[in-house]
Amino acid sequence: MVDFTRRDIATLGIMAAGVTLAPSRAAATRSPGAALADPIQYVNPELRPAWLGLRQWTSNAGKPGASPAPPGMAIPRMGPDWMPRKIAGRGGAPDVGILVHGARAGTSRPAILHIHGGGYTGGSPMISMGSLQAIADAMDCVIVTVDYRLAPATRFPGALEDNYAALLWMHGQASDLGIDRSRIAVLGESAGGGHAAMLAIAARDRGEVTLAFQALIYPMIDDRTGSNGWMPPPYIDVVSWTPANNAQGWTALLGVPAGSSVLPKGSVPARITDVSGLPPTYIAVGSIDIFVNENIAYAQRLIDAGIPVELNVVPGAFHGFDIFASETGLAKRFRARLVDALGAAFRKA
Known about the structure:
The protein is an alpha/beta fold.
């Protein structure tokens, strides 16, 4: 069994930092004398206990006896069916760590390449182990999740190449793993959703592997959000992830300030000029998630390019709500809808 690492706990702390950082930004931007409405009124009632617990947990973080994780969040464990492996990196890069579930030679089943979140600077596959296990339990498929290199120690395209190496490995080892090459999907949450979108673009451009589907869960896909692009209203960025966090994460990945006019090619999905030829897409995001505007805009661009898109906007859901409020009915329905979208995509492929 593999437990949460310090890296994972640190990532959760960064995500939750928005609870304390956002009010000062909101206070600075609202008009003099204007009263800032209590942001909890925008939170889905089912999620309010988790939101309040998250705020309290953040204020206690680092104090003696403080809980290592927010209340309402189940600390995932890796079951014995997940097999760790190392595969060769690309172009002389270090070996890439992966976890494999459901490999069974002699079969031909759909497969999911999963990429974890963490703001491009933190996290590990363990952060998503709960949702991945739910998918594994619900679907007869192969799942590979990637422990890619993190920024700022590794700038773009290092993580992309790690993820692409895993995709090529899955495709090349399809017979041994029991994978149907025509039914490979990519899945990611938050920064992992950004990486998944980058990978889908790279796969299209390089022409070596055709993806059947991309599932982007509140993906981090536009470096301009909160910097020189869309500035969320005060109630949106008070939990989980702030504009300052967003700018720091993107700057760490890109090696240039977030929102710069010149970027590494293929690094920011929302800013690529051509989205045609990308795979059918599922995008899910909460209505008070900092990424809601960029996610809706990306879905619209894909629709305009003729890409089949399912967009799920959850009323009153904040960033990472399915992690921080994992046992709520809303989170369970959110995960179930992802499973349904993946199943439908694999039946069509």
